Each structure stands twice: as C-alpha cells, then as structure tokens.
Amino acid sequence: MSKLKDSLKKVGIHLLLILGATTLIAFLFLKFFLPSYTNHGQTVSIPDLEGFSYEELDSYLGARNLNYEIELDSGFNADLPPLTVLKQLPRAGSQVKSGRKIYITLNSKNAPMIKMPNLVNSQLKNVQEILSNIGLVRGEIKYVPDIGINVVLEQKYRGRNIPEGFELPKGSQIDLVVGDGLGNQILDVPNLIGMDEIDAEFLIIGSGLRMGRLNYVTTDTVPQGTIVRQIPPSGAEVKTGEPIDLWISEIAKQRDF
C-alpha cells in the first residue's frame, strides 16, 4: 500500500514539474521571443508617395525599412510624368510594422485611347461636362456666323475635323467651332418708320432680325407708339439675327395751370 502511495506521489511531482516548466516556457515565449520576432510595439508611419517617380522608391522606402510592390493595373494622369506614383495602399499616415509592403499604382507611360463622342449640334454649355466625363479636354473655341447661338458646328483635334468614334489619347484637347447666333445670311433692313410698335416688332422678327433697344421720344406731332427712328436704317445690309434699335413716340403729359 505504501509503495502505491509513493508511486502516486512521484507521478504527481513529475506532473507538477512538467506543468511548471510548460508555464515558464509559455511565459518566456509570449513575453520575450514573440514580441521580438514580430517587432511588437515598433511601428512606422507610411509616407505620402503620390508624385514620387518609380526610380525614387527603392532608396526612399528602403531607408524607412518598408517594402513595396507595383500593382499590375496602372492609371493615367496627363498632368503627371510617366511612372509617377498615383495611388498607394496603405494610405499615407497609416501606422504599420517595420518591413510592411506598400502596394503602388503607377502612372501609365501611354495614355489609354478614348472614343470621340458626337458633339455636333450640342449646346456649348453641355460640352464641357461631356468631355470631362470621358477624359478629354475642351480646347480653343472659334465662333463663326450661324443662327445657332453657342451650338457646336465642328469638333477638331490638331486642326482636323474628327468624326464620332475616332480614337484619341486620354487627355487630348478638342477644339470647337461654335455658332455665334448671328448667321451668315445678308438681309436688307426693312423700313419701320411710321409703323406702330407692335407691327414693327412683327416685321423685324419675321425678317430674321431681332428687337434691339427701345427708346422713347416725347413729341406732339406724331401719334403715340409710332416708330420715328431706327438703327440700322432702312435698306442697310445686315446678318441674320442682328438687333434693330427703335425710337418710339410718346405724347408729352399736359400740365394743369
């Protein structure tokens, strides 16, 4: 019986020793080895790399104990040189462990090709948004006589008209030929002297012209509302859409004495 008790006691002591040793090893591993292996508590701040050239990355990141990897998908910005950093992950300012890899997106050497949309007959105010949305730039605007005011008549790239669907490098500048609203048809100004204001306006608009400034002249000899003067004068040659200024009679108010 005593031998059995001695054996059980020895087994218990051995178990306690094993448990103690295991606990000590686990403590030392978690407290010293693991933090040292993972650089626990040692972090670096990710620098802002946007605008850096590809050639600068090795020395700049190497000095900060950081690594990088170039993403296969590139972007394009016409305002930046080729192989310039466009994006990075993690973002600048992130706190990471020493040796962390940063994923880099570079500016492509060649601009992607963009299909030219059809801008002809579009209003100029809409064209800027259309071009911007697809990555093209509005260039020079040339006004020519046409009854369509601010309507695009031609779309040009490097001096040549380009059709819808023509492929251009992203960031290309598109020049526009736009109507000035005056037209190129030559008209004779009708004689409006002696007409009333309503009839004169009807004739002006019907002749392809438009009403200009209205001036009122006080007179006792001409019926009120009668045209007494016009500029340009009757018979003058003008373009479609030109304004006609009118002087209209009004009766002077009589004073009571």
TrEMBL record:
Keywords: Membrane, Transmembrane, Transmembrane helix. PROSITE patterns: PASTA. Gene3D superfamilies: 3.30.10.20. The chain crosses the membrane at residues 12-34. The keyword Plastid does not apply. Residues 41-108, 110-180, 183-250 form the PASTA domain. It holds the Pfam family PASTA. InterPro entries: PASTA_dom. It comes from the Bacteria. This is PASTA domain, binds beta-lactams. It comes from Belliella pelovolcani.
